[in-house]
Amino acid sequence: MLDQIHLLAAVTVLGVLEQAYFFLQVIYARRVFGISPPKISGPPEFERIFRAQVNSSEYFPIFLALLWQAGLFFHQGLAAALGLLYLYARYCYFMGYRASSSERLAPIYFSTGVLWILITASALGILHFFLSHYVGLNILQLLTA
After folding, report:
1. Each residue of 74-133: pLDDT tens digit?
2. Would residue 104 show up in a list of annotated catalytic residues for this protein?
3. Active-site option among 31, 48, 51, 98
């Protein structure tokens, strides 16, 4: 069983580490700009870092659910590769947003595209599971016949 989920688990750990890095960047920015919690406003430089972290945190549960669904029901390797692409795009998003609000756009569009691919893979995998287990229709066998 573990050989069927080890790549997903590795990408999950990398994602958690990335989120921790983003959290630490906000803590560092709070110190640099003298913004004590619970304040969330300040200079534009701080607000961009804060928003980049919050936006990344908001999407993280969606990413994890899709990563695991696509990996379990479609293909672990493909899901893990897409997961790495997503994490890289989110890192580029964070760094771009930190520099300028306009530099966040290309990475956010790319990461959203990766999420759509994960949604598609998840839906196809779950559909195949339901059809093969409840209807007795194995699409893969029909396609290879």
Report:
1. 999 999 999 999 999 999 999 999 999 999 999 999 999 999 999 999 999 999 999 999
2. yes
3. 31
